[in-house]
Amino acid sequence: MTWTAEEMMTVTAARALTGHTSCFVGIGLPSTAANLARRLHAPNLVLIYESGAIGAKPTRLPLSIGDGELALTADAVVSVPEVFNYWLQPGRIDVGFLSAAQLDRFANLNTTVIGDYRDPTVRLPGAGGAPEIAASCREVFLMLRHTRRAFVEKVDFITSVGFGDGPGSRERLGLRGRGPVLVVTDIGVLQPDPDTRELTLTSLHPGADLAAARAATGWDLAVAADLTETPPPTGEELDLLRALVKGA
Amino acid sequence: MTWTAEEMMTVTAARALTGHTSCFVGIGLPSTAANLARRLHAPNLVLIYESGAIGAKPTRLPLSIGDGELALTADAVVSVPEVFNYWLQPGRIDVGFLSAAQLDRFANLNTTVIGDYRDPTVRLPGAGGAPEIAASCREVFLMLRHTRRAFVEKVDFITSVGFGDGPGSRERLGLRGRGPVLVVTDIGVLQPDPDTRELTLTSLHPGADLAAARAATGWDLAVAADLTETPPPTGEELDLLRALVKGA
Amino acid sequence: MAELVGLAEGIATLVRDGDVVALEGFTHLIPVRAGQEIIRQGRRNLTLVRMTPDIIYDQLIGAGCARALVFSWGGNPGVGSLHRFRDAVSNGWPVPLEVEEHSHAGMANRYVAGASGLPFAVLRGYAGTDLFRHTANLATVTCPFTGEVLTAVPALRPDVTIIHAQRADRAGNVQMWGLTGVQKEAVLAADRSLVTVEEIVDALEPRPDAVVLPGWTVSAVAEVPGGARPSYAQGYYDRDNEAYRAWDAISRDRDTFTAWLEALAA
Amino acid sequence: MAELVGLAEGIATLVRDGDVVALEGFTHLIPVRAGQEIIRQGRRNLTLVRMTPDIIYDQLIGAGCARALVFSWGGNPGVGSLHRFRDAVSNGWPVPLEVEEHSHAGMANRYVAGASGLPFAVLRGYAGTDLFRHTANLATVTCPFTGEVLTAVPALRPDVTIIHAQRADRAGNVQMWGLTGVQKEAVLAADRSLVTVEEIVDALEPRPDAVVLPGWTVSAVAEVPGGARPSYAQGYYDRDNEAYRAWDAISRDRDTFTAWLEALAA
Prior knowledge:
By secondary structure, chain A is α/β, with parallel strands linked by helices. Chain A is 27% helix and 23% strand.
């Protein structure tokens, strides 16, 4: 059985979502992963979209966060100010999904510009909900491709804070969530070291090798002593995922 | 034709409400006056109840501000925080109705305590929406019985600010509404002097006399040079008012 | 997820002596039966919070459940004064009652701050009033952009908030409609919450002017038909004005009130 | 009271050169047709405000209507970048574009402050980000009760806000439903407002998840069926994804864009 890198990422993220977890999801891979988890092992997962759908249960993948399907299947539909003020800010939401164009070893994220802010090489979309998702969700999951362009020594712009410059940073900044606890890439899985907060490779996807991971990382990559292999996607996982994506 | 003092007050207040005025009304005489005006000369009057009914068109007088009739006939039903933050605070509402247990010559109002705050002679209901209604409505109408106990030299507690200690007070306090422009009592009508802001008797109801007004006022009552007589209630006004009250 | 419980069980597990307890419902959907269950279970030293304390708070105060009241308007709507509240404030009967009073705008914003995870809220309010001289929990804050001075009120975070709603489903999702006041904010601001409902249904069909509180935001739901009487429950019953008038007579006098209290306990 | 107008008349009377203009609609009910009418009428030096500038703002920017953009996320949702926006930021084509960027939470709260008549709003946001180094309109405020330091954002008060809704009645009362985003706040925060609607009806029957803006809070209402295409209008039409993808090709190149612009003007 074969699968794509994207399928491996999506299945790995979906597995990390369990129970009654409430989950702040954007569109794209996170939404796919969360909806896959609801169809697999986490039927009670609470999906919250920043467009105002609380407890959405889409029967197909939404085309955008404005998809009527989200409003029509939600437990409650609220205004955008309410989503951020009453739901995200107080830390009610367990998991927030984010991605980025750049991240550093402390999982600080850049979605604003590549290059100089006033004269950028690439102008990116900007912050959106990310700074407050990174600050206030109880935990943050990251999903992004593992490349040297993305995994950089220093991000060009800190759009969202991971662990700042290391231990104690989040506390000093008054960020109440635990921060990024899981980074799922197309090569493997990284998790912050409990002491140094530095992202550490804890698992390699089937077929990926450590040299590739190091080569795709712009800093000297820390590797867990007990580096494991990510269990491959099961037939059920792949079937459900493919049906979900096809249905969109 | 005869009428009660309360009917005279209600009709007089109703006449002052015209056009598309938006009106923040409580229960009791103000609600009766506003609903009478809608049935007389101001069918487009917008009634706003602090319980969250924006543009209520009750077919009968509400029993309380929680009356379902208000929600069922409103243009929009909103939360209580929204009523105060989005509707009252920005100064969107033209007229606010208030009453009080005590008022002074500058129309400062007391609805909190008679006597000492910590050891009151009479504990009154308190502020409710009054301080912000008095601060933020474009204009304030007052309705209360004209007695020496109510019209006092100095209120025991300033619950809501009229003109403070005179000209400039509202500006210094950052109160953006014009303040009380009309006081309707069972004896007559008082309006603030344009220069001194002191309440001045501008009209006496039919049958009331100036001596009675002076006797019922706890300070040396200012009287307008062109003191007029309030036009008596018309048959139509009384018929509609009585039907309205009977229907409640 | 919200647990489905009986009213007695819900009060027993969620409301503790000394708690800060908010019962909200802005003249509509007042959780009267839940308040009376607090009296029955003999809770003491509660700090009672409510924008509009009316007869249910008069009953709680008269029964000696409260050591403090945080409020913005206290009265028997359309009838007159709260005699048990007055007796507690003026004579300390049956126990002394501390009072912290605000305006409606201030109380509403205190709940908003609590629901939003903020320590305070900003409003244009209280300016020039004597509330600033007597209410400790007020301050000013200066706009960092305009220099304008505004009023700040601290967040309200009740230990437990109790409200009454029309419906819940078996997963504990709560639906209320009509005038829903400050109830959503009061529940989201609290550590724990109990919602009494007219009925528990299989599914909550969407309807106009409805507010839904997902079950995972509520601690417990109890089916209590008539739980808001004598106040309104839109779609179920209207206000029983006679009961409000009758309360005036019952509450005027300590003996008639005590007799009422004994009848309630019986 | 809201006046019922044609779209061209509404834009002509309400939108002026140099205005601060907000077109809101959070990926649903985006006022696309109204934005294109602004291009047709050749408005210049606008400060465009929008949480999520997408293809309609790419069009306005490419057409040279804007001197500044205030936003929190700019992109072609599900497709990629906004090429006209990038060209303006990187190369000043066709005119230089000043950028003031925020987070969604910051923008939403800026509208809330504007709608509430407050000069600023308080939130837990931006902490530790480089936004503080590059966005002038940010400050901190200290809680007078706890001493905690929070972020302050200034109120947004557009000269004119434009939104698209499903329905209005002949008195100009506006009804929208589904995901209604920040539109109520954006309208209440503005001096003037224009609402385009799918249809004008005799009566607005109440319905679930509906937000109503009374006619007296709106300057003008224009009936513009399909006014939100290619975005959604719940109950009327779905998103036209193909159009979003097509925009990527049209906007990539100045010449193809210019041809599109001439076709629009024709």
